[in-house]
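Fig. S4 source data, part A: sequence.
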Amino acid sequence: MNLIQAVLLAAVNSGNHKTWHILLPTFQFGSNISSVTHCSTRLRLFIRNKSSVNLEQIKKTKPVLGTVFSGDELQIVLGKNLIPIYNEVSKLHENSGAPASAADNTPKGPMTPKERVKDLSSRLIGFISAAVTPLIPGLVGGGMLKVFLLLITLAWPAFGETQTYDLLSMVANIPFYFMPVFVAYGAAKKLGATPLYAMTVAACLVYPNFVELLKGEDPVTILSIPVMVVNYSSTLLPALLIGACAHYVEKLLTKIIPGIIRPVFVGMCTITITFILGITILGPLGDLVGSYVVNIFLWANAHIGPLAVGLLAGCMPFLVMTGMHHAVTPFMVQAISDPGYDIMFRPAYLLHNMAEGGACLGVCLRAKNKAFKSQCFGLAVGCVVAGVTEPAIYGVNLRLKRPLIGVVCGAAAGGVVARLLGATAYVYGYSTILALPIFEHTFLAMLAGIVVAIAVAAAVTFVLGFDESICVEEEETPVPAPAADPAPAASAGPVEVYAPLTGKVIPREQIPDETFATGVLGDGVGIEPEIGEVVAPFDGEISSTTETFHAVGVSGPGGIELLIHVGVDTVNMKGDGFTLLVKEGERVKKGQNLIAFDIEKIRAAGYPTATAVLVTNSEDYAACKVSADGRVSAGDSLITVEQ
């Protein structure tokens, strides 16, 4: 099963996994997925109706490493496979015409006060996570560029006096200086608002003329309301509030302003009202709240000292697994901005990553299976050097359970040692051993914490032991083939797919459905039918059917999987005009009738009759060549699949 196909189907609808390649194109992608984004290892889908998501189906799909629901955000851990999958998912989402609003319109029953509080906190965390996630790659990129420049100046002090250094430093500072603008974008996207309105107001907060005006000796007012003097550069919470305000103002104005003048006045009034509220109430409030939250953590550090870092580091694996780790990101960013250093968050993040690597190293040292030992060593290196922990968490430590104890012990011990020695991050960087320079003159303290975290995690894991068969059997034990009714044996030569309908052949790209046309569901062709009959394209087995009878999947020689989908959006006809003549699991012969359908009834319902004939596992073959052109009769050669 293609990963993209399975993930999208499961996220859109909890259908039978056997019908994934039939059901997927019939769903409106935007009906349940409001927005799509990603971080370094996770695909993040914002879901309107969580009850319809088939998590078990997603988890069973390789190479999914794990799934997490944080608020209304579905996080699918993909590791190194993330980017190509995200690109396809994002493309499908954009082509779906998904509605702008991210609100969940699913009817809900009355909630208890406890459920209301839980729902509110869940939505708040989801909002913060969605707003901050698009910003993180920029912060990491800028922070690591600062580290790189610092290393160069240490080795070559004269470089710090060059224009090259000045210009590159400028680039490194941009993600931090203009952080309110980027956060406003993320907040607006999450809420389904027009991002430019929120971004415009956020940009005003760091606009040079506005900054200079606040620095002046005379008090600043707007509509006779005092404007507080706040340095908004590198702040995050003010932008979150402004993004939310812009959304609700735009929503209200869209309702009350007549349609004929709406394009002119909604934007103007939205940025004006949001700006006034932003510089008088929301901005100062966000700055105040952010400062207080950071001070709470500083207070914890002052009163319980090293235990605060150790406790946070020890809890970090559970925060990562529940997707809660991004909820503290705003405060980590705030700490770097004011007071200008981070004594808690970044050390805890980094030491957790080191402990995950240490636990994998402990598994590697004790495991007997050579392939598994090699895998664990590679995951350990990934945690320590690349700072990517999800493959280690979901692939080894969580599955074996006991290594997770080693992670907690190692991270906590490393946190206590690092804080005792005064480890402090002064630049926003990544949580990897390569980011040690962000700790500047305290990097030896951080290095000591890292050594302790890795050593303790590895030692505890080694001593406690584990049942490696949990992982080894899952990866290496072959699944026995069914004794009865085996699938057709694979052949070395090409496989012929014969036309299942009579009609005009059209290129796949011209099928009037984006999912079919782009080839996401596999390569093949379309047929504009002249006769309302679908016949078997080869000797094989019916692998899947639908309740609405409009499509069928057929397995055949060489392991080929073929989808025959009659019409576009014909699922909406709910079976009217279709008669299914076979059942799932039935063996069929080439030319045997599979579906009878009424062409005129489909047209009268307003749906295209173009029928997709797609090899859904075409990526498993060398080529799928269309061997027919113009008009074909049922039984004529249509596609040649080369192995």
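Fig. S4 source data, part B ends here. The radius of gyration is 29 Å.
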